[in-house]
Amino acid sequence: MNAAHHKRVQIALDILNQTDACGINESNANKLIIKYGRAAMFAFIERLPGDSVLRTDMTPVFASVGHRYDQATHSPTHRRPRVQIALPVDFEQAVQLYAEKSARIKQIKIRRGHLYSESTVRRRGAEARYFCEFLVRQGLQFWPEVSQHHLDMYVDETNRCTGGNAFTFLQFMRQNNRMTQRFIRPKIRLKPPAEAMLDSDAVPGVLRRIVVYPDAQVAVAALFLTLFGQMVARSAELRLGNFRERGEKLEALFAEEWTPLDVLTTLFLRKLNPSIGVTLPEQADTLLFTYPLRKLRDLVAKVVAVPLKPLRMTAIANIIRSGVTDRGAISRILGASMPTLAYIEKAFEWDLQMTVEPEIVKARNEVIRGERTE
Question: What one-character DSSP code corresponds to residue 323?
């Protein structure tokens, strides 16, 4: 069962579980939209037969909670403006402080050479506001009234990921509002890492589709993803100065350290830009790709014909299988985060980090603590 079909099955089961004797209502519809997203719910409705009673019942309800549903084309036409709930002074000030803190984080990240999108700043502020609006609906007006019970209720109404964002906001408020309550972060149940990757025989097929694709820009971005685990969004920010010739090898700077590129990727890079690696200083800041990010991502998804995230996880796993098992080295070379690497390692039957005998570790620690001098 592929991921898309599995998601449709989960939606169907949730509809059955949440629907009462009177049928689906706006409350049920809102919960489903929060959990799966509007696009997924309207896609589910669109797949139902035209004479389906469920489709007839669901269409007007989902139209009333945010979209106008076009009866002729069976697709959403536009989203109604969202009506914000007026927040008490305490909550409104908290949202503003959190938004300001997010903006400062962005400035620090960019100053240190990290990626941090303006949309992330907006999203963090919006998530804080959504949580405060939820608290208002529960009849709360002051932060001392908020407890773990309210966070648990919010997780039940939304999902664990959204609840985790609310927990981060609450931790910020504990530091800035002298809240005495302690909160527990909702545990996010990740799928087994083996299920988050492609089958081992899928990558050769992806490479065959890439090498025959006529557009060099798309082919290079797809190779970066398939062989080096580079997200398309990060590849789109690469500049000519991120490539250099060293000896007979072309190297790329994906993160903090230069990475030698394979023959296939080098071939397509030279096809895209014959002078790659010997860029003049004034051209160093020129972007490698001219396509906008959205177009580049869509074209890469089309040519690889598999989900992009599992393909990236598979690429990193293949690099680990090749013998590069140092998390720090992989992170510095590819820019992958430590939690992502730790998650991928769980797909292997051996523990890549347990390479030293326990007795040696114990003796080493004793020496470090000064308990052993011999």
Answer: T
- In this structure, which topology does domain 196-345 adopt according to CATH? hpI Integrase; Chain A (1.10.443)
Domain residue ranges in the chain: 3-79, 89-177, 196-345
SS3 sequence of 212-256: CCCCHHHHHHHHHHHHHCCCHHHHCCCEHHHEEEECCEEEEECCC
Tokens of 351: 């523990």
How far apart CA 36 and CA 158 sit, in angstroms, is 10
pLDDT in tens, the chain (374 residues): 456 677 778 888 877 776 554 456 666 777 777 777 777 787 787 777 766 767 777 776 666 554 444 444 444 444 445 567 889 999 999 999 999 999 999 888 888 777 777 888 888 999 999 999 999 999 999 998 999 999 999 988 888 888 889 999 999 988 877 678 889 888 766 678 878 888 878 899 999 999 999 999 999 999 999 999 999 999 999 999 999 998 888 999 998 899 999 999 999 999 999 989 887 788 888 999 999 988 999 999 999 999 999 999 999 998 888 888 788 888 889 988 888 888 888 887 665 555 556 666 566 566 656 666 55
Q: Do residues 136 and 85 touch, judged by C-beta distance below 8 A?
A: yes
